[in-house]
């Protein structure tokens, strides 16, 4: 898979995953595996943008930078990649196609 394929890949929450918005983020729970994870406000925004609204990583990066006034693109890209990897590891997301 080349870099463009990886960048363009979109994911969605598994059908067994419940997403609950909280005051300071969200709680994500997979009722099949029992995996549960609290998400802080930024992680919750990433989850909603990429896995529920199917925004691209670049669109997500723009929202995160604007809303939280972050100027370092590489830092935000790294955080997005780490978030996707963690969501895959816990089995919360599957390819959207």
Distance between the termini: 16 Å
Mean pLDDT: 92
The H/E string reads HEEEEHHHE
Strand arrangement within the widest β-sheet reads 2-3-4
**Strand element count:** 5
Tell me about this structure.
The chain has 97 residues and is of the alpha+beta class. Helix content is 48%, strand content 24%. The protein has helices at residues 3-8, 41-52, 57-68, 73-89, and strands at residues 11-13, 17-22, 25-30, 36-40, 93-95. Strands 2-3-4 form a three-stranded antiparallel beta sheet. A two-stranded antiparallel ribbon has the order 1-5. The radius of gyration is 13 Å and the shape is globular. Residues 1-6 have low confidence and may be disordered.
Short description:
With 97 residues, this protein is an alpha+beta fold.
Secondary-structure blueprint of this entry?
Blueprint: H1 3-8, E1 11-13, E2 17-22, E3 25-30, E4 36-40, H2 41-52, H3 57-68, H4 73-89, E5 93-95
Antiparallel strand pairs: 1-5, 2-3, 3-4
């Amino acid at each position: 898979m080349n870099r463009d394929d990886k960048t363009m890949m979109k994911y969605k929450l598994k059908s067994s995953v419940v997403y609950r918005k909280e005051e300071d983020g969200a709680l994500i729970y997979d009722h099949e595996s029992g995996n549960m994870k609290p998400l802080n406000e930024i992680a919750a925004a990433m989850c909603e943008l990429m896995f529920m609204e199917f925004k691209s990583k670049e669109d997500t990066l723009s929202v995160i930078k604007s809303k939280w006034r972050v100027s370092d693109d590489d830092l935000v890209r790294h955080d997005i990649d780490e978030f996707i990897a963690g969501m895959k590891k816990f089995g919360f997301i599957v390819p959207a196609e």
